[in-house]
Design goal:
Length: about 270
């Protein structure tokens, strides 16, 4: 009973394999009837090197009976078609696929035709490999250029940040006595009024402060008078921008604040000079 079941299973498997082989060759025969020679050959060519002897013989016979299949096959190994295949699959996979197809083609084509196909394939592979190398080099150069630009942007931002820190640290003025400090603080109020876009909300003997910036384009300022020895004091200036949401905003803010910081001491000195 078990032996019978095994025999039935083997027969069913062989029948399925035969049917599968017949299916693609039957489809090829249908395409031949429609004179779709390129499609027909692509179906037939698998049969040219199959291990199924009956299918192999049938495939060879179909090519022999329909010379148009050989013409269609030859066209698939033209330089443009092979370049298109390389572009579609890439040099490695394309070389594998088309190399296998040349092997199939050699079963039915003349040695001269096979040599032409192989030569065209070799050129197509070489051209594709060259193009891929060029693309790879181009991508590497693009990446290097992006990295260079990124490094340059970081350097420029670091330089700007350093300039900002220096300008902010130097935006102060030391006055010697109460009279001079009163003048300096009055001049500071004038400077803030000229440079800030926000109105002053606090003004007393020790603090000058504008309203906080609401929009990014707004500039707020603040000055404090810090007592020193005796009646001397130091006036320190601060500058603020509106809401900052990115490094680009920070850069814009620095570029706006630095001239204000750097202009403070010269403005006071020039006005105090007799």
């Amino acid at each position: 009973m078990l032996r019978s079941l095994l025999l039935v299973s083997v027969i069913a498997l062989l029948s399925a394999c035969a049917t599968q082989g017949q299916n693609y060759l039957d489809r090829a025969q249908t395409e031949i009837g429609k004179r779709n020679w390129d499609v027909a050959y692509r179906l037939v060519e698998d049969g040219l090197i199959t291990t199924n002897a009956a299918n192999r013989e049938r495939a060879v016979a179909m090519v022999a009976q329909n010379p148009q299949l050989l013409t269609a096959a030859e066209a698939t190994f033209s330089a443009p078609r092979l370049r298109a295949s390389m572009a579609s699959y890439g040099s490695k996979e394309g070389a594998r696929i088309e190399g296998q197809r040349v092997l199939m083609y050699s079963v039915v084509a003349s040695p001269a035709a096979v040599r032409v196909a192989r030569a065209n394939l070799d050129r197509a592979i070489a051209d594709r490999e060259q193009l891929e190398r060029e693309n790879s080099d181009s991508m590497a150069r693009s990446k290097e250029e992006e990295e260079r630009k990124s490094a340059e942007a970081r350097r420029r931002f670091a330089d700007l940040q350093s300039r900002m820190n220096t300008a902010a640290a130097n935006a102060r003025y030391t006055c010697a006595d109460a009279l001079q400090c009163s003048k300096v603080f009055a001049l500071t109020q004038i400077y803030i009024t000229e440079k800030a876009t926000m109105r002053i909300q606090t003004a007393n003997d020790t603090i000058l402060e504008t309203f906080n910036p609401v929009k990014f384009a707004d500039t707020g300022m603040r000055a404090i008078k810090v007592p020193r020895a005796g009646t001397s004091a130091e006036v320190r200036l601060e500058v603020s921008c509106g809401p900052i949401r990115s490094e680009a905003d920070t850069t814009t803010c620095y570029l706006r604040a630095i001239p204000i910081f750097e202009g403070f001491r010269p403005f006071v000195q020039a006005t105090l000079q007799p």
